[in-house]
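User: quick one, sequence for these C-alpha cells?
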C-alpha cells in the first residue's frame, strides 16, 4: 500500500499510540551534560507530542514514564526524576484541563510519596470529564506485575465462588488489567534505538504495529511523530486473515 507522507485521512490514523520514551540520558551525554539534564528536555518533547496527538485527533496516548525496574537506577537520578515528575504535574495539569485532555495514571502508586500520590489523584479528578485526548502515564508500571495482579484478582473471584474456572476467558483477563476501558494500542513507538518492549503493556501489545527509531526522545517533534504514523499507514493489518480477505473487507 502506497501512502503519501502526512496522509490527511485521519480516519486511518492509529486511535491509540503507546510510546517508550528512551534516550534522555544519552541525549545529555552527547552534549557533555550530566545524564539528569536530559530529563527536562524529555519533558519538552512530551509537550510537543501531546500537542501533536491532540491536534491529529488521536484518542489515546500512553507514555511509559517510569517502569518498575527504573528504581534500580542511581538514587540521585531517581530522586531528581521524582522531583521533576511532581513539578511537571503541578505546572501542566491546568494546561491539560483547558485543552480538554484527560489525564490518567497506571502502575502501583503506593511506592510514591504521599505528595505525589495526592497530586496524581487531584490531576485525574480535575480532568476526568474532559472528552479530547486521553493521556495515560505509566508510572511504576510493569507488564508482568499488571498481569500478576489481574490473575490474583480473578483467582480471588474463583475462590469466592463468583467465577468458575471455565468462565475465565480473554475478555475477563483484559478487563482485570490496567485501562480495560481503552482500546489496545494500534501503534507502539520506541525512541533511542533499542528494539524491545521492556515489560510495557505485554498483553495489550499483542497485535500492535511496532515502530523503532534511532532518534533520542528529547529530539521528538511533530515531524518524527508523523513519520511514525506514515510508517503505520503503510502496513497491512491482517489480524490473522489473508491479504485477500483484508482487501475484500476494505472494498
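Assistant:
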Amino acid at each position: 500500500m502506497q501512502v503519501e507522507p502526512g496522509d490527511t485521512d485521519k480516519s486511518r490514523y492509529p486511535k491509540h499510540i503507546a510510546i517508550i520514551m528512551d534516550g534522555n540520558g544519552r541525549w545529555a551525554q552527547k552534549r557533555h551534560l550530566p545524564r539528569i539534564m536530559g530529563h527536562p528536555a524529555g519533558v519538552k518533547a512530551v509537550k510537543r507530542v501531546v500537542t501533536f496527538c491532540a491536534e491529529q485527533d488521536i484518542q489515546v496516548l500512553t507514555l511509559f514514564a517510569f517502569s518498575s525496574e527504573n528504581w534500580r537506577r542511581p538514587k540521585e537520578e531517581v530522586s531528581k526524576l521524582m522531583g521533576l515528575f511532581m513539578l511537571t504535574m503541578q505546572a501542566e495539569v491546568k494546561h491539560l484541563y483547558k485543552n480538554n485532555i484527560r489525564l490518567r495514571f497506571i502502575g502501583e502508586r503506593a511506592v510514591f510519596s504521599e505528595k505525589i500520590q495526592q497530586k496524581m489523584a487531584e490531576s485525574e479528578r480535575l480532568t476526568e470529564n474532559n472528552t479530547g485526548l486521553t493521556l495515560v502515564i505509566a508510572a511504576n508500571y510493569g507488564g508482568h506485575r499488571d498481569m500478576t495482579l489481574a490473575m490474583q484478582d480473578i483467582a480471588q473471584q474463583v475462590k469466592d465462588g463468583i467465577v468458575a474456572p471455565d468462565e475465565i476467558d480473554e475478555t475477563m483477563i483484559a478487563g482485570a488489567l490496567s485501562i480495560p476501558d481503552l482500546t489496545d494500542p494500534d501503534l507502539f513507538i520506541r525512541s533511542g534505538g533499542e528494539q524491545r518492549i521492556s515489560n510495557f503493556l505485554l498483553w495489550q501489545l499483542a497485535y500492535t504495529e511496532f515502530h523503532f527509531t534511532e532518534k533520542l526522545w528529547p529530539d521528538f517533534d511533530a515531524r518524527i511523530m508523523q513519520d511514525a504514523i506514515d510508517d503505520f499507514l503503510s502496513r497491512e493489518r491482517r489480524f490473522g486473515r489473508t491479504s485477500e480477505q483484508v482487501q475484500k473487507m476494505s472494498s
